[in-house]
Amino acid sequence: MSAKEELLKTLKELADEEFKDFKWMLPEAIPKNQQENADRMYTVDKIIQTFSHQSVEKVKKVLKKINRNDLLKKLSSINTETQDVFPRRQSKACSPPNTLVEAQLSLQTPTPPQTTSPRATTLPALSKSTSLLQSPLVDKAQTTNTSSKYDNITCKVKIHSGSPAVYQLKPKKENIGPLTRITLGEKDPNKSNKTILLVGETGTGKSTLINALVNYAMGVEWEDDVWFKIVEEEKRSQSESQTSEVIVYQIFGFEDKTLPYSLTIINTPEYGSTAEIEQNAIVRQCLFKLFQSVNGVHEINAVGLVMKASENQLSDRLRYIFNSVISLFGKDIEKNSVALFTHSDGLTPENVLKALEAANIKCAKDEDNEPVHFMFNNRQSIQRTRKNIGALKGAWDLTIDQIVLFTDFLKENSPQKLETTVEESKLQTRLTACIQNQKEIIRFIDLKQTEIQQTMEGLKKHEQEIKKNQEFTVEVDEVYKHKEPIGGGRRELTYVGAVCCQLCKENCHYPGCTVAGRPVDCEVMKDDCCTSCSGRCPVSNHVKVEWKYVSNTKKVKKTLNDMKEKYEKNNAGSESKFSLLETLQQKIEELQKEKDQLLEKSFEHVVQLDQIALKDDLMSTSVHLDFLIEKMKEKEDKEKERKLEEMKSRLDDRTRRNTSSKYGNIISTSDLIKSGFPAVYQLIPRKEKIETLTRMTLGEKDPNKINKTILLVGETGTGKSTLINALVNYAMGVKWEDDVWFKIVEDEKRSQTESQTSDVIVYQIFGYEDKPLPYSLTIIDTPGYGDTTGIEHDVDIMERLFNLFRSEDGVHEINAVGLVLKAGVNRLSDRLRYIFDSVVSLFGKDMEKNIVALITHSNGRTPENALKALEAAKIKFARDEMNQPVHFLFDNCQNEDRTKEAEVLKHADKTSMKGMSQFTDFLVKTAPQRLEKTIKVLNGRIRLTACINNLKERIELISLKQTEMQQIQDGLKKYEREMKNNEEFTIEVDEVYKEKEHIKGGRRKLVFYKGAVCCTVCKENCHHPGCTVVWKPGHCEVMKDGRCTSCTGKCPASDHVKENWKYVTKTRRVKKTLEDVKAKYEKNKEENKKQESFLESLQKEKETLEADKTALLDEAYHHVVKLEQIALNVVSLSTYVHLDFLIEEMEKKNDTEKDQVVLAVRQQYVAIGDQVVTLGDGDEVAVVPPVSGG
To answer: What is the pTM of this model?
Structure first.
């Protein structure tokens, strides 16, 4: 059943009253005066005649309105591209060829000379040989029908033969800076013209749409089997993919074809979030010049927002592009703004229409209060084959039908006259500049009034001195102006600077003067005079410079004569104090009057500015309102204050709507920290704190989405927290034009000694994978340790990282380790080198290719000094093609108040966004470092540390035992006579013993168990400190193949416990008899052994202990060598103390070879007190004993 029959069947299922409602909702198809007599068949015919391919969709909309959703579902299966149901909307049009045979034959038959319509052709009967199906449409056909119709177009070059033949038009081309004018044909001043301004991103099909409009204007038909291109295709690099020119296409000489008028199409470039402020200024200036020039464009019939029909949301950049362009026009342009949907299938694009509404795009509305829109499927230049000809014909018909509707809109809609637009745009700029200057003058007056008030108070205070003609001085804050450099300068066609009046010493246009190269070209100039400065001075008194005037004060002491000279220079020299005070009071009143006048002017300017702009400059307008509201409160002018508050409320609502349409869900669950530009919100993620490890999770993890992990290392004050916030905002898709900023890092008030973060914090950012990044982010922030908290704290932090990498729900791979440092550094501090080395010592050597420098506080230029500092510090980094450390630049000022130095902050944002883009691309391209290898390194380090700790305790025990033995030997020698006579005697010794001592620890949640793993057989601490994760001794890192690698006996795991105590070695002073001593050291020997035998036993015991010590030292030495082979950097302060201990013991053994090996590992650092200092090549350390007295 055809679509037409389905529509009729559907209407027959409507009750009579429902059918009446249905017709009433179709006034454009069924006029009111015909509705009563229109039956269902007539209604279907009128619907198809009126709406063509959109007929089914139109009927479905009406069915939805009358609540017949059951019938709506039945219509959903109809193919609206059926060719025999919906005829093209054209007069006297012939049926299109249905096969390649028909298409060929139609092209081989010349158009009859008596044809009245240029679009009418005669189709021959299908008696030709069907063998034509085996061959394509040939050039012979094109040289007959096509050449006869388009012979007069000589400025064309064939770029593709076939069906259709494709030609590149070669019109006249004129380049005027970044403005290009392309003209086809000659203008007839007696013919009308319609102008379309197109706005859209790269890839939406603007160029193809322009070609389609030009072909339609030329009268090109499907059966002509030809296509013309006017847009030149250029091969650009990715960075240059967006068009940088404003191009004006003028299509003249075809007014007798399909359109009764000529066409002008203005194609605006795809500038926006990736372009500079200067680029935006260039585009706006080009449009201004185009609108102002004598032979330019003086009216606009339509502003077309070009989008793909498949879009379900407007990108930030597209919103920015559109708003940037329409901000040039007055409020009336809204009724001329339409949506042009490309890549359409002919169905109503519900999603993209909702997206337009959600984005608060201001455009014309249809009878259903939806944005006026037209749909296109521009595939006209695609080669036609037997397989695709039906689809291509459907796409052609859809596009032609919609172009007809669009060109009807152009004809029926009143154009926007641009004389008003140009003047209004200039006026907006002029008013904004005037308000800014008036604010600065008012502030200057406030300072002058304060100075005079201080002078008056000083005179009253020294009244007695004045009477006695005694000298005195009064200290006041004297006001002065000076010149202050600003960021700016000439760049291509722009000149960012300030226009200043040298006579008034005022900033007549700053900020915002970005295009004019001379004061005379600035928007604040009118009739060769300035509209901004106090004196309305001539242009000749002004300069365009890279500095501005700034009001300031300085403390000065003034005598009575100084004050008289300044305030009474026009009066007689000797005046009484009353005369001077009266003069000062009069001066204050004059200044107040001047200030009131300025406030009145500023108020009038703001009101005028509010009335003329379609899209207000929210940021600049808001800051002016805040200032004026404050001043009106001081004046107690309630009426003006109320009006200004109303204006501010409207702006705030608009800002909230624009922001909430995109971030409504996030804002509703965040805390507002600061309103304004930007509004700053504190995100409230889920927070889980385990010991000194904190996990902050935003959103829900999708196990099907990939994740990238960044580990950040840096000192306090380098901008790590700000960089983390910037990374999170970038992942969320926050743009400059959104005027919003989110913080995830919590601000904490700390004392100076506690300024560094003490936690390892893991930020997990989920749920934004459809924003700029195709992956979620995990950011690990390591604290700026190595500062004031000492070695124990550093070891604790390292343990936190160990635990994070080892835990089941922790981090199992790292994509990048980022060393955060300021761009201005020219030498890496000892502490920063230490911090970095401490962290990278956790990883294997493969991590080097994942290590990068993240350079903050950057101005966008190559940080030569910082790069040299990295090289000098011998930091191991990934290398770029120039063999420099891979680095990325950031200047994260996005949360700063943009009402001041907006251009500087915008440049900073651009630098950061570029750095973010490059860094996140690096994360995609670089293979992650799987942490299985790292875990081996960590376990090796843990085992080494545990063994050395155990070794130190055992050596200390041996040393104490040796001391005890020495005391016994000394005692025996002392009581040699008593021993010979078998007399009783006692020896006082420091007896060594072990006991259990409670330690801080215990189970924390289901993850951590801080305690000590101890061997109950050897009575030794096998792993303490550092055993924080495992619950059972068998799972501890010191266990290998079921046995302990740490204790003396290498005992089974079953002989070990994990408890909240540890073994400690202590001594106690005891008195021992000879029998006590013998019982301890000769319990397996006979009691009548000689004294020499007993002394020999003691000596042998000492030698055994020394041998044990040597064996343990050798074991530790081999641990160090092995770790150095597998680790990227073996040195960190946690191992430094162990290395120091090993060196000391090796020196005692006089083992110089091993001593040098260990020293080579350690030589980067030397400890001074509880801190470390980095040693460079050739540095030496001298140990100086304290001088007398300290």
So the answer is: 0.46
DSSP H/E element including 1002: strand 1002-1004
Residue 603's pLDDT is what?
A: 85
Cα of 287 vs its chain's centroid, Å: 30
Whether the per-residue pLDDT at 1029 is higher than 70: the answer is no
CA atoms within 13 A on the CB side of 498: 25
Q: How do strand 693-698 and strand 707-713 relate by DSSP bridges?
A: unpaired
Model pLDDT for residues 508-517, shown as the tens digit of each residue: 998 777 777 8
Strand partners, 521: none
Residue 126: which residues within 8 A CB-CB, separation 6 or more? 101, 102, 105
Q: What 8-state DSSP symbol labels residue 746?
A: P
The answer on pLDDT for 1172 being more than 60 is no
Task: Let me know the angle formed at the C-alpha of 920 by 915 and 925, rounded to the nearest 5 degrees.
Answer: 125
- Domains of the chain in sequence order: 3-75 (1.10.533.10), 156-232+242-414 (3.40.50.300), 421-565+592-612 (no CATH), 663-927 (3.40.50.300), 935-999+1060-1080+1095-1163 (no CATH)
Bridge partners, residue 764, by sequence: 697, 778
CA distances from 570 to 278, 563, 564, 566, 989 (A): 49, 13, 10, 9, 102
d(CA 579, CA 885) in angstroms, rounded, equals 73
**What H or E segment, with its residue span, contains residue 1149?**
helix 1133-1149
Q: How many CA atoms lie within 13 A of 159 on its CB side?
A: 15
pLDDT of 82 reads 41
pLDDT digits (tens, 9 = 90+) for 454-500: 999 988 888 888 788 888 888 999 999 999 888 666 654 557 789 99
- How many other C-beta atoms lie within 10 A of the C-beta of residue 470? 10
DSSP letter for each residue of 166-230: EEEE--EEEEETTEEEEEES---TTS-EEEEEEE--TTSSHHHHHHHHHHHHHT--GGGTEEEE-
Count of helices and strands (H, E) across the chain:
30, 44
pLDDT on residue 1015: 95
Decide if pLDDT at 413 tops 50.
yes
Query: Is residue 144 helix, strand or coil?
Result: helix
Q: How far apart are the first and last CA of the chain?
A: 108
